[in-house]
Amino acid sequence: MDGFTRLPDLALRTYGGSVVAASDESFAEKESLIKPGRPGFMPETFGNKGQVYDGWETRRRREPGHDWALVRLGLPGVIRGVVIDTAWFKGNYPPRASVEATSVAGHPSPAEVLAAPWTEIVPLSDLKGDAEHLFPVTDDARYTHVRLNIHPDGGVARLRVHGEVRPDLSLHDGLGIDLAALANGGLVTACSDEFYSAPNNVIAPGLARHQAEGWETARRRDGGNDWIVIRLAGRGVVRLAEIDTTNLLFNAPGAVALTGLDGDREVELLPRTRLQPDTPHRFRLGADTPVTHVRVDIYPDGGLARVRLHGHLV
């Protein structure tokens, strides 16, 4: 996989993304484009509209033009790459596609977004059936919406929009925020192990529904411990830590420690502290030193559902 696919999917439904409009969805609904997980397929499964597909599929066009789907990013930001996945669409995939992006403040209607100026971030490109297509993006602008254009019609299983979150933190002036949250611009920048699941899961929006929606490592046999480093939304003072082991019944860590990082300086935020399985833990922190990153050490291995680091930007 390309390097950009390790970045968060800004359009993901579980991150607040939405397919707000489409030119057509006669055969399969537009909302499937941004569902989490790999597309599924059951052959010879027919509904009132034909074979059931886990994706977005338009009718056969009999007039000039092309179809499109408008996606509001759940996490606005800088787009580093796009994945157009035509999984299971073999005789009904679009032969070509392009992607455009725009930025509209506030809570615009689909009509207002469509009327905004658009920038092409993926030029018109050839597609294959039943395949993932990876397109790096070099544009450094911040975007809130993307439009997938398929030429002329057909089906796309998933659209992934990977990038770096760039929220409007001015909304939180004078207020405390979760400095680690992916939605606020936090990002896991280093990790000792991600054998079972991705470390950015621990700072994702919402609660983990099962253990795969958290971060879980392999079993260590070397006497060491696992860890992640979280780049905070901005330099700030962390006042409250939430360490959640929900859903991790027999594979939660035995203990956790938190260390703040600010340049070459290390600040102990939470000494090694015992954890319980399947439990949300909350710890008040006493350090007043601003930090830019936090290292979360778990002992010796295991998984975390969520990490929240509440505090104030400086």
Automatic annotation (TrEMBL):
Pathway: Nitrogen metabolism; (S)-allantoin degradation; (S)-ureidoglycolate from allantoate (aminidohydrolase route): step 1/1. Residues 16-165, 185-313 form the Allantoicase domain. One of its GO terms (molecular function) is allantoicase activity. InterPro entries: Allantoicase, Allantoicase_dom, Galactose-bd-like_sf. It catalyses: allantoate + H2O = (S)-ureidoglycolate + urea. It comes from the Bacteria. Keywords: Hydrolase, Purine metabolism. Its EC number is 3.5.3.4. Belongs to the allantoicase family. This is Probable allantoicase.
